[in-house]
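How a chain folds remains the central question behind the approach discussed here. The record that follows shows the chain in one-letter code together with its fold in token form:
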Amino acid sequence: MLVHSRAGRWAAWALFLVLFVPLFAVPLAVVVAASFATNWSGAFPSGPTGAHYAAATGADSLQALGTSLMTALAASLLALTAGTWAALAAAALRSRGKRILDALFVLPVAVPSVVVGLSVLVAFSRPPVLLNGTRWIVILAHTVLVTAFAYQSVSAAIVRLDPVYEQAAAGLGARPAYVLWRIRLPLLLPSLTAAAGLCFALSMGELSATMMLYPPDWTPLPVQIFAATDRGSLFTGAAVAVVLMGTTLLVLLGVSRIRTRASYR
């Protein structure tokens, strides 16, 4: 920690707990508690049960979970590819060109996601590119929404790269493509995995744009959670939300291990 005195460290931890517990820990604990309750009329839930998880792990929920995983995986890979390519290209531009490219990639997160969903719906509901009513329009919207985070993460990592390695390889006669694949991208691998994890987590929880675009045969899990709570099935919705959180955390833990190994390399 940046605080070196014992009193300062205790004060920093106390401030962290004061902010973390009510803002993050309590809401998550409430969702977990609600997933095991049959009613909640007082300060605490009552009637503990695991029946809600039977619905949360039923055929419809598992299909929706698979849809979310495939959507998030596809969107993350597309966003990481586009964001990395754009970040590498922006690094070679002058400051004005880089600022313009930064603004273009940040634009989708500067407006509400429902606006992005509407834009994609209007743009791809007619030939020559007709995606409305297919899974691809959902994947495209998620890609547009998360690419900005991949671009920003990789751009920040490129700025921190030591150019000595690239210069040494180029001085030994390595071609630009070889320098990119064998020097630059391996050095960026920890940042690439971190960006992929962030894009995946954001895509798994995306709802606003998805509600405008999803076809009946491609229903992600956040839509099912919204539908359950909208019907008044709050406890079932909480159980489905816990399944969504747990799955996302497991994937992020796997990505974290890959990132750790990449950092050691």
Observations:
- Residues 59-91 form the longest helix (33 residues).
- The chain has two domains: 1-49, 59-264.
- The chain has a mean pLDDT of 88.
- The two ends are 25 Å apart (CA to CA).
